[in-house]
C-alpha cells in the first residue's frame, strides 16, 4: 500500500456522489440510444392525451424481439396451480415443469400438494413415437399413490407439435377411475400468456360443469386473486367484517369442491381482469352471475372497490358497515403514509407488470405518494386498459406494450427513472442500470393489497429508492 499513488483517490461529498450517479446515467443513456424496430413502433408511444387508435396491443409477440411475455402454458399454469388439492401433470419435457414449479408466493390454509410438480418428462423417443402411453402411465401412478379427486393435464409446445390426443387420454382415465381428469389446452406455439389464461378458465368451467344451478346463496366469488403472501385472506377478512361471505376464491387457497360450488354465488368480483374477465363472462352466461371489476391495490382503489361491492349487494346495513370500516382503516394508516410521502415526493417511477389492472392501480399509488410515473407498460394489457392509463398518466409518459429489455432500458434512462416496479425478469436489468427495484410479481412474500398493503408498498419503495447504496454506484 505504501507504493500506491494517493492522487488516485478522490473524496466526494454526498451531493457530489449524487451528481456523479446522474452523470453516469446520462453517459449510459447516450451510449444506449437505440431505434425501435419497425414492428414495435405501433406498440410504443409518448402520452399526448390525444386518442390514437393505432396503438397496438394484445397481439402476438414479434419473433426475435426477446419479449418479456410468457408462453401459453405458463399463463395456464399460474392460474390453476394455486388450487391446493388438485394434481397437475405437465405433459412435456421436464423443463416446462421446472420452469413453473412453485412459481407463485401462493399460500394455503389446507392441502400442500400443489407445491409438487408432476411431469411426463418427454424424451426424444417419446417425441418420435408419441407420448400418450407415458401420460396414461403417469395418471395410473398418481391415482395409485395419491388417490386424487381432480387431475389437470397440461399440453405443452412439443405435445402440440406431435399431436398427442390428451382429450382421449383424459376421457379414458375418467372412465377408468371415476375421477375428474381435465385437459388444459396450452401448447405454447398457439398464442401468448393471455391465451393460457383462457385455457385455464375453460378448464375451471369444465370442473364446474355446465349444468344450470337453481339454488343461489347470498355470497360472492372472488376471482383473480392467487393469495400471494396471504392477500386473499386479507380481503376475505375485510368482507367478513362487513357481513359478506365468499363461496370460492379463484384460485388462491381454493379447493376443487369450492370451485364446484362457485355457480351458486350471486356476484363475482374480478381482481385480475387480464386472467379472469373471460371466466366472469362465461359464468354470467352459464349461471346468470353478474360481475364487478375491482382492485385492492392502493387506498383509492380499495375504498372504491369495497363501496362498489356494498352497492352491488344492495343491503343498507352492509353499506353502513363498509363506510365505517373504510373511515376507520384509512385513519389508522394515514400517519405512516404521510411519513413516506414526505420522503418520496418528486421521485420518478417506471412500471412494467403483467396485467393492465395492476399498472393502473400502481399509477394511482405513485400519485398518492407524490411520485411521477414516467414509463408504464404491461405484458397482457387490453385496449381499454391503455385508454385508462393514457387518461391518468401525464403528458410525455412512455406507454408500451409487451416491451423487450432493450426498450425498457432505453426509456428508463431517457426518463431518468428512480425505480422500476416489475417482476423477477426485470430485477437484474434495473440493478444493472443503477435503478431501484420493487418486486410486484408472483414470487413476493409480503402482502401489498388492502390498507396494510398500501403501507407495506410505500415502505418498500422508500427502502429501495432512498437506500444509501445508490450513493456508491
If you had to describe this structure to a student in words, what would you say it looks like?
The protein is 47% helix and 15% strand. The chain folds into 3 domains: 116 residues, Rossmann fold; 137 residues, Nitrogenase molybdenum iron protein domain (Rossmann fold); 109 residues, Nitrogenase molybdenum iron protein domain (Rossmann fold). The strands form 3 sheets. The chain has a 6-stranded mixed sheet, with helices on both faces. Strands 3-2-4-5 form a 4-stranded parallel sheet, sandwiched between helices. Strands 7-6-8-9 form a 4-stranded parallel sheet, sandwiched between helices. Strand 2, helix 3 and strand 3 form a beta-alpha-beta unit. Helix 14 packs parallel to helix 15. It contains 18 helices and 14 strands. With 473 residues, the protein is α/β, with parallel strands linked by helices.
CATH class of the largest domain equals Alpha Beta
Shape: globular
Q: Rg from C-alpha positions?
A: 24 Å
List how many beta strands DSSP finds.
14
Separation, N- and C-terminal Cα atoms = 24 Å
Structural class: alpha/beta
Strand fraction:
5-15%
Amino acid at each position: 500500500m505504501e507504493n500506491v499513488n494517493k492522487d488516485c483517490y478522490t473524496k466526494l461529498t454526498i451531493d457530489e456522489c449524487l451528481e456523479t450517479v446522474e452523470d453516469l446515467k446520462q453517459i449510459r443513456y447516450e451510449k444506449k440510444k437505440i431505434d425501435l424496430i419497425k414492428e414495435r413502433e405501433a406498440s410504443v408511444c409518448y402520452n399526448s392525451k390525444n386518442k390514437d387508435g393505432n396503438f397496438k396491443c394484445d397481439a402476438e409477440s414479434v419473433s426475435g424481439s426477446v419479449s418479456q411475455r410468457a408462453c401459453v402454458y405458463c399463463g395456464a399454469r399460474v392460474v390453476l396451480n394455486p388450487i391446493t388439492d388438485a394434481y397437475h401433470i405437465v405433459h412435456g419435457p421436464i423443463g416446462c415443469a421446472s420452469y413453473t414449479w412453485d412459481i407463485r408466493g401462493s399460500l394455503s390454509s389446507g392441502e400442500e400438494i400443489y407445491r409438487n410438480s408432476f411431469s411426463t418428462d418427454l424424451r426424444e423417443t417419446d417425441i418420435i413415437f408419441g407420448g400418450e402411453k407415458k401420460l396414461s402411465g403417469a395418471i395410473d401412478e398418481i391415482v395409485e399413490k395419491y388417490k386424487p379427486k381432480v387431475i389437470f393435464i397440461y399440453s405443452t409446445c412439443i405435445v402440440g407439435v406431435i399431436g398427442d390426443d390428451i382429450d382421449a387420454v383424459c376421457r379414458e382415465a375418467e372412465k377408468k377411475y371415476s375421477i375428474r381428469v381435465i385437459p388444459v389446452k396450452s401448447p405454447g406455439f398457439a398464442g401468448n400468456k393471455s391465451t393460457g389464461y383462457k385455457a385455464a378458465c375453460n378448464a375451471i368451467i369444465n370442473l364446474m360443469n355446465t349444468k344450470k344451478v337453481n339454488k343461489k346463496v347470498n355470497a360472492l366469488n372472488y376471482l383473480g386473486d392467487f393469495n400471494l403472501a396471504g392477500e386473499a385472506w386479507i380481503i376475505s377478512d375485510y368482507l367478513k367484517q362487513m357481513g359478506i361471505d365468499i363461496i370460492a376464491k379463484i384460485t388462491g387457497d381454493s379447493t376443487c369442491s369450492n370451485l364446484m360450488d362457485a355457480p351458486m354465488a350471486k356476484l363475482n368480483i374480478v381482481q385480475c381482469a387480464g386472467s379472469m374477465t373471460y371466466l366472469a363472462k362465461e359464468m354470467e352466461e352459464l349461471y346468470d352471475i353478474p360481475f364487478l371489476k375491482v382492485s385492492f391495490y392502493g387506498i383509492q382503489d380499495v375504498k372504491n372497490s369495497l363501496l362498489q361491492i356494498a352497492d352491488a349487494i344492495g343491503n343498507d346495513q352492509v353499506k353502513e358497515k363498509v363506510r365505517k370500516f373504510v373511515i376507520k382503516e384509512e385513519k389508522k394508516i394515514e400517519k405512516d403514509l404521510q411519513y413516506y410521502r414526505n420522503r418520496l415526493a418528486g421521485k420518478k417511477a417506471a412500471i412494467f407488470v403483467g396485467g393492465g389492472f395492476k399498472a393502473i392501480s400502481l399509477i394511482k399509488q405513485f400519485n398518492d405518494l407524490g411520485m411521477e410515473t414516467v414509463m408504464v407498460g404491461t405484458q397482457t394489457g387490453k385496449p381499454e386498459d391503455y385508454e385508462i392509463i393514457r387518461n391518468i398518466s401525464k403528458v410525455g409518459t412512455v406507454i408500451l406494450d409487451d416491451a423487450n429489455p432493450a426498450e425498457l432500458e432505453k426509456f428508463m434512462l431517457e426518463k431518468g427513472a428512480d425505480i422500476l416496479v416489475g417482476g423477477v425478469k426485470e430485477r437484474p436489468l434495473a440493478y444493472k442500470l443503477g435503478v431501484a427495484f420493487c418486486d410486484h410479481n408472483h414470487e413476493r412474500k409480503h402482502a401489498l393489497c388492502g390498507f396494510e398493503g398500501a403501507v407495506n408498498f410505500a415502505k418498500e419503495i422508500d427502502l429501495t429508492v432512498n437506500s444509501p447504496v445508490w450513493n456508491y454506484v
